[in-house]
Amino acid sequence: MSDQQFDFAPRRGASAEWIAETIDAIMEQATLAEKVGMLSGRGFFQEFMADDRLWGARPYRAGSGIERLGVPPLWFTDGPRGVARGQSTCFPCTMARGATFDTDLEMRIGEAMGKEIRAQDCDLSGAVCINILRHPAWGRAQETYGEDPHHLGAMGTALGLGIQTQNVIATVKHFALNSMENARFKVDVQVGERALHEIYLPHFKTALDAGVATVMSAYNKYNGEYCGQHHGLLTDILRGEWGFSGFVHSDWVMGLYKPYAVAAGLDIENPEPQILGDKLIAAVEAGHVAPFVIDRACRNILRTQYRFACASDPLTEYPVELVAAPEHVALAREAAQKSVVLLENNGVLPLDRDKVRRIAVLGRLAALPNTGDMGSSRVRPPYVVTPIAALRTTLGPDAILSGDEDDIDAAVVAAREADVALVVAGYTAREEGEFIPGDITLGQESDRNGGRPAIGGDRLSLDLAAEQVALIEAVAATGTPVIVAIVAGSAVLVERWREQASAILQTFYAGMEGGNALADILFGDVSPSGRLPFTVARDASDYPHFDRNADAITYDYWHGYAKLARDGVEPRYPFGHGLSYTRFARRALRVSVSPDSLDISVTVANLGERAGDESILCYVRCPGGVERWPVALKAFSRVSLEPGEARTIAMTIKIDDLRYRDEHRHEWKLESGEYQIHISGGVETDLKASVRL
Ligand code: BGC
After folding, report:
1. Average pLDDT over residues 305-314
2. Which one of 130, 376, 436 would you pick to mutate in the ligand 1 pocket, going by the greatest count of ligand atoms within 8 A of its CB?
3. Residue 225 has pLDDT above 70, yes or no
4. How many whole angstroms from 426 Cα to the centroid of ligand 1?
5. Cα of 558 to ligand 1 centre, how many Å?
6. How is domain 338-554 classified at the architecture level of CATH?
7. What values do phi and psi take at 647, rounded to 5?
8. Could you tell me the CATH superfamily of domain 60-320?
9. Which residues are catalytic?
10. Which of 104-118, 168-182, 278-292, 668-682 has the lowest mean pLDDT?
11. How far is CA 634 from CA 392, 562, 625, in A?
C-alpha cells in the first residue's frame, strides 16, 4: 500500500470542506516515515554547496511534504529587506522602515515582497523579524523595527499580512528573546514572567492574533531550555494561552537538539533532518514520543499549508517580471525617503539648488553599495544607488568633489572648494549584522570555508570609527558646513562630534534607492519625516548590560526609553525624535472610553510652507500602583499634510493592551485608576488627557 500513488495536491479555489477531507485522507494514507519526513527540510546542505554557497540561489524545502501523496514541500525564502533570492527589490532595512511609523507603507512592501516571492517559486517567507531591540549593539538590530513592543507588533503585522495577500505564508521570528547575535546559539536568556509577557512577547501575539500564520523559533535558550524545544514557550504560551493553530518551524541549523522538540510544540526542523528524521522515528518506535505528537505536527503543517495553497490568488499569474518591477523599486524609494530621520539641523538643510554649486561628498560609505548585512537577510538587487552616484545625477558630475577617511588631507581640500560637505559615516556588514564566522560549518564537517575572515556580529562600539570622527572634525575645521549622514542599523552615539555638524541625518541601510532618497531629502524635494524607533543615549552606560559572549544574561523589565526615563537620564535623542522642514501643531485631543477600548482623536495641522508627513505617537501613563514603564507607546498614526492643512486623526487603544501580567496568578489584570494619554512626536509630551478605568 505504501507505494500506491495519490494526488492530494492543493488546488486553488478548493473549499474548506475539501481541504479538511483531503488532510484526513493524507493522514490516513501516510506512513510514519512519510509523516516524519514532512517535519524537516531536506537537501539544503548539498544544494547550498552545489550553488557555491550562494544563499537564495534556489527555494529551500522547509518541511518536505509527501511526494507519493502529492503533498508539496514548503518552499522557503528569507529576507526582511526584500526577497533573499534572485535579483529582488532591496528595500531599506527593517529598522529604517520602523522609522517610517507607516503601517500602510509596510503593508504595501509586504504585498510587493509577496509577489516577488511567488514569482520566484516560494511560498513561505522569513521576512517578519520582530525581536525587541534591547541594546543598540545587537548585530541584527537592522532586521527588526525598534525597541518598543507596540510599534513592533503593528509594523510586523503589516508586513506579514501584506506578504500573505499573495498567499505566501509569513512567519514571525525569532520566537523568542533573540536580541543578541554572537552568543545566539548558546546564550541562556533569563527572564521573569512580567518582562516576558509585557515586553518580549506581546508583539508576537499581536501579529499572530491578526493572522500572521506561522512562527520561527529562536536559537537561544529561555530560562535554561532552547527555544526550539521549549514546552512552556511553544505549547503552554503559544498554543495554550494564545490559541495559535499554525505551525512552528525552527531557525536554520542548530535550532533544536533533541527529538522531544516535537512533543514540546515544534513542528518542523530546518533545513535538514538532523535531530528529527530517523532519530524521531526511533524515538516513536521506542515509545519515547507518542504517535499522536507526530500526527498533531503534520496536521498543524497541512492545515496552514493547504489554507494558503488552496486560496484564490489576487493575480492570475506571477511572472518573473514582477521581481524588482518598477513599481516595487518606486516603493523602495518611497520607503527610503520616509525613513530618513533628521536628527539635527541648524538651518543648512534643505539645500538650495540655485545656491549650492559644489558639494564635497566624503567618506568611504558615500560610494559604497551598502544595503546591510551579508547574512540570511542579504538581498541582491539589480543595482544600488549610492549617495555619491545620486548626487552626481542630481547636480551633474562636475559639482561633486570627493574624498574619504583614507586621505583626510585630500578630503579637506575638497571641503574647502565646496559650498557644503556631506560626510557619510557609519557601518557595513563587517561591523554589524548576522555573524558569519570564517569557518562556517553549517553543522557539516565537510563544509568549512577555510579561513575567510569573520564578519558581522554584535557591534564592538556604539561610536563612529575614529577615522570617521577625524574626517568630520577636519572637514568642520575648514568652515564649510558639514552634514553627517549616519548609516547604521540602530543607535550611534554622537557626543564626540555632534557640535561640529550643521545637520545630522540617520539614513540606516537605505536599500537600492537609498542614494536617490537621500538626495531628495537634502534638496527638500521631500521633507524628512522619519522618527527614531529607538533611543539614542548620550553615553553607552545608559543602555542595559550587554555582553556579546554571554553564556547567560538577564533581560529585565527595563530598556530603551523606559529605562532612561526610570533612571532620570536625558537621552541625546528620544524615541520618536525626528525633525522636519515644516512645522506641525497638534490640538483638540479627545479621549472617550468604550467597553473594550480608548478612542482617541487629535487634530494635526501643518503650519509651515512645505508639504510634510507627521507621525503622531500616543503614550499612556498607567495609574502607578503597580510598577510600569513611566510612559508606554500604545498607538501611533501618520498623516501627510499640505501647507496650511489640518486633519483629525483617530487612534484606538485596546483596554487589553493596558493590562499588566500578574506573575503570581499568571494572568492579566487591569489596574483601576487614572490613565494619562500623552500625544507627542517624541517622548516630551505636548498634549495630555486622562481617563479613569
Ligand atoms: C537566521 C534566520 C533565517 C534563517 C534562514 C538563520 O541563520 O537566524 O533569521 O531566517 O537563517 O535564512
Report:
1. 98
2. 376
3. yes
4. 24
5. 27
6. 3-Layer(aba) Sandwich (3.40)
7. -140, 150
8. Glycoside hydrolase, family 3, N-terminal domain (3.20.20.300)
9. 251
10. 668-682
11. 43, 13, 19
